[in-house]
Amino acid sequence: MRIVIAEDDPLLREGIALLLRAESLDVVATTDSPDAFLAAVDAHEPDVAIVDVRMPPTHTDEGIKAAVEARRRRPGLAVLVLSAYVEQAFATELLAGGPDRLGYLLKERVGRVEEFLDALHRVAGGGTAIDPDVVAQLFTRSRPDSGLDRLTARERDVLALMAEGLGNTAIAERLVVTEGAVHKHIRSIFAKLDLAPTDRADRRVAAVLRYMENTRG
Question: CA 101, CA 93: separation in Å to the nearest integer?
């Protein structure tokens, strides 16, 4: 796994690089600006990019824009975005093009090494990894007409874990229920969100994106 890191805080940038190299992962470049990051993506053709949301010069959304541009230049690039705090608009903007190979974590999650590495490997493997705190805050902002109000508390728990990127087995373990129960909850979620089976749509992805879209500020 070839990794490029874009983070303007030198301590965090080098700390992440040391952590990943200790896990025998190949950090091919560390950068401190969007332009340097995109140049590194072009030069090294990484499998994964770890990108800070707020980067120079304005420290607003340069990281998100750079991540979107990097994926345009290198289709299939996995991107794990780091943010100091929950920024719902950036989470939904990043997911707007589809959730595959995307992650959005709070920086405090980096210190929880197993969780951070799990998210990194999940994203690199083609999945999605959304910070649980981001998911929780998105749910508290759900619009009353979104269809989410029809879900039971347990169904909302299941959908939240789906949004984090967990599969059915992991959801069952987290909620201490059977996989059969998880399947039933997911079928109910699809029905309540009016997501009928089709050959063109992945209902699991559609359910997650529906709730992301309907929880924007």
Answer: 15
- Does 58 reside within a domain? yes
Answer yes or no: pTM beyond 0.70.
no
Which residues 6+ apart lie within 8 Å of 204 measured at CB?
162, 186
- Considering just the CA atoms, what is the radius of gyration of the chain in Å? 17
**Model confidence pLDDT, tens digit, residues 39-60:** 999 999 999 999 998 888 988 8
d(CA 86, CA 138): 9
Structural domain boundaries, residue 202: 141-213
Q: Across-strand partners of 1? A: none
> For the domain that residue 168 is a member of, what is the CATH number?
1.10.10.10
142-183 per-position pLDDT tens digit? 555 567 778 898 998 898 888 777 889 999 999 999 999 999
Same domain for 185 and 109, yes or no, is no
Looking at the 3D structure of the chain, how many domains does it have?
A: 2
